[in-house]
Amino acid sequence: MKENVWKWGRQSDTWVYLLLAYPVIDYVLRKILPIPVVSSLWDDGLLLVLLLFTFLAYWKGSRDMPAIKHTFAAFIVYGLALTVADMANWDASVEGFRAVYQYMIAFFIGFYLLRDTKQLVVFLKVLTAFGFLAAVVGIMQVVLGVQTPQSWVQEGEAVTTRAFSIVTSPNVLGSYMALIAPVAVGLAVTTANRKERIIWWIVALTTLLTLLLTSSRGAWIALAVALFVCCYLWNKRLAGFLVIAGIVGLIGLYFVPESTPLIGKISNRIFTLFTPEYLQSSMQAGRLDRWGEAYDKMRLEPLFGVGLGHHGGAVGSRHFGTIYTDSYLFKSIAELGLIGVIMLIALIAMTFAYAVRLIRAQAGKPPFFLMLGLFGGLFAVAMHNLVENIFEVPFMSLYFWLFGGFLCALYADQAKEKRW
Question: Domain O-antigen ligase-related, which positions (predicted)?
Fold first, then answer.
């Protein structure tokens, strides 16, 4: 038994699996079996262990990181400079730095620890399995009529019960499902085993249903945009038909009575966005007001922002009493300024650029749809950050950068093979 435990502990895969189980482990340690210190710091310890494996892999020098490493280095130095620039609020600055940069470490973990495509498939299956578990819990909440906290239900809407599962909110669950659903579809299309294909299709449909039950408009729109981009990469003509189908679907949805099960609630949730009441409430104390406030903060310090942890997130709320910006982009604009936001966007854009090159090189090969599905999920998460603070949630930020690192690693290997 001891030998088996020691054998598992020496393998980096074991620790990556724990990282992929993050939402479940964190929920158990915080809500069911709270252990002092461990419940708060277990993820920090897990990242430290994985960093040791990452350092060993880097030391062996089996893989060279492409040009994104320069942008990462510049962004990290920039963050350190912002941290020491405000010594009067040192605690907030350090905590703000940690909130932004700690989980980006997962990119390097993913880049150096991934061996090949086969290992990525295993990781994706584990990720999707835990996502399916969260999806089932979310569906059961709605079936059992678990009341959604009032802060997540907008006045005047028909929706009063929103799935939130084991994560912090319906919007976070929506983003989680928007990540998992395309991956499940990719697994279903890629596998040659009929029984396995049926299982992954069931997982995909379950996660999509849970996504609908979260009533997260931002996640819906983000996944729709990601679906269009994926279709465009696969078949441009199909992408055009998708746009037409989407327009026709929205027109039809407008005429659906609110009393219609599920569809009526979706219609109410979407078209509430275009009512004068929503616009007025959003401009007074909602998203538009918060985005405007973040923009005003940036205008005071356009290049460098007001400082890490000083506005629009959990750290800013604790130290300065600021409210959540409901947009990671606007939060970053206020805290990082234009220089920092440009570098952050560049990192995400470069990650997607490598992914697209990798996907195009796989056209006609078995891994194509798997890579496309993973890209679609990551793209949906990035898009959702425009209207939610998704990267404020540790496991969502970890997943984005970890799998971004995986895709970048495969791209680097592919580029190396071409050179040879």
Answer: 203-345
In 274-367, alpha helices (H): 276-285, 287-300, 314-320, 328-361
Nearest-5° Cα angle at 288, 170 to 393: 35
What does the pLDDT look like over 211-228, one tens digit per residue? 999 999 999 999 999 999
CA-based nearest residue to 330, from 388, 258, 403, 263: 388
Rounded CA gap, 241 and 236, in Å? 9
Report d(CA 277, CA 156) in Å as an integer. 9
Rg value, the chain, Cα: 22
Q: Which amino acid is at 65?
A: M
Residue that the structure tokens 């891994």 belong to: 367
Instruction: Count how many residues are written for the chain.
Output: 420
* 213 close to 399: Cβ distance less than 8 angstroms: no
Residues 290/325, Cβ–Cβ less than 8 Å: yes
Q: What is the DSSP letter of 114?
A: -
Q: What's the distance, Cα to Cα, between the start and end of the chain in Å? A: 45
Give the helix, strand, coil percentages of the chain, each rounded to 5. Answer: 80, 0, 20
295-332 residue pLDDT tens:
999 998 999 999 999 998 889 888 888 888 999 999 99
Looking at residue 311, the DSSP 8-state letter turns out to be S
Amino acid letter, 249: G
